[in-house]
Design brief:
Length: about 250
Amino acid sequence: MELTVFDTKTGMGAAAARKGAMLISSSLKEKGRASIILATGASQFEMLGELVKAELDWSKVSVFHLDEYIGISDTHPASFRKYLNERFVDLVSPASFYAINGEADPEKECRRLATIIRDQEVDVAFVGIGENAHLAFNDPPADFETLEAYIAVDLDLVCRQQQLGEGWFPSIEAVPSRAISMSVSQIMKSRTIICTVPDTRKANAVQKTVEGELTPEVPASILQTHQHTWLFLDRESSSLLKREEL
């Protein structure tokens, strides 16, 4: 895991986007196509805003997204499909966008998406880390063992409070309690991972992810085992790290 710390989240997001664009470009030159995973949430605003400016042939890039609430329509303000359509898909017109349909039967939707992604080599996964150190919607204790590509999960209270705190919902009661998430094992199959994590509220999760033990209680700690992961932090999110090189 390679760490880079920036004074501001703007610099961090731009750097993460540049690194990701370089990796996508390499895959396009190597294979003539590329597949990526995109995360959502407030942590990805700056990164996505810069990534859409990259001079890439997006018509040769397929896009998967990490997670979606069960029971949420694609017009709901908190819908991740809506988020990605507005901030990425509609702006660059990728070859494909394999959206998770939160209104579909969860088991059938997981099987549908698994059928699609099993034939894809994901070149770059753009991810974040939750306040509870979740990776996608794999809240602690995360399932590190499942080989299913997508799973239906229960969201814990800390995760739901984060969604409320970021302003996606008007009350905790309005935050869904279940979601469809890409599994940890599927994320870890990606050739490269770009992880962008701003803000003080993520500092504890970052410290446990980087310096703590590998454990399902800290889902993002699994990134320690991926040889090609770049972690982009700002001063606030890295504030609890003790590593001398920071």
